[in-house]
Amino acid sequence: METRVAVISIIVEDPEQTGALNMALHEYSKYIIGRMGIPYREKGISIISIAIDAPQDDINTLSGRIGKIKGVTAKTAYSNVITKNTNA
């Protein structure tokens, strides 16, 4: 199985949805390389960046799932780094 490195950029406009967002991220935690969150209090939003190394289908599924959460927006940028996973 091949994995790909990507970054998912997330903007949370509805703080009530952080529980749903964290549940989605937890389900894919084995693929997450790192996470950075910045509360932008002046605008009432949070900006989150997730670095991930996972099969492309899993990245697409996670990003789509996050994007379906009301008050949350997600966009994904993919690197050209694709690795064969020898552990699968």
Please render the helix and strand layout as text.
Layout: E1 2-12, H1 18-27, E2 32-40, E3 45-54, H2 56-67, E4 72-84
Antiparallel strand pairs: 1-3, 1-4, 2-3
Describe the structure in your own words.
- With 88 residues, the chain is an alpha+beta fold.
- It has one domain (2-84): Alpha-Beta Plaits.
- It is built from two helices and four strands, in the order E-H-E-E-H-E.
- Strands 2-3-1-4 form a four-stranded antiparallel beta sheet.
- The longest helix has 12 residues, at 56-67.
- The radius of gyration is 13 Å and the shape is elongated.
- The mean pLDDT is 95.
Number of helices: 2
* Level-2 CATH architecture: 2-Layer Sandwich
Distance between the termini: 6 Å
CATH homologous group name: ACT-like. Chain A, domain 2
**Strand order in space, largest sheet:** 2-3-1-4
In a nutshell, what does this entry contain?
By secondary structure, the chain is of the alpha+beta class. The chain contains 2 helices and 4 strands.
Short descriptors:
88 residues; alpha+beta; Alpha-Beta Plaits; 4-stranded antiparallel beta sheet; elongated
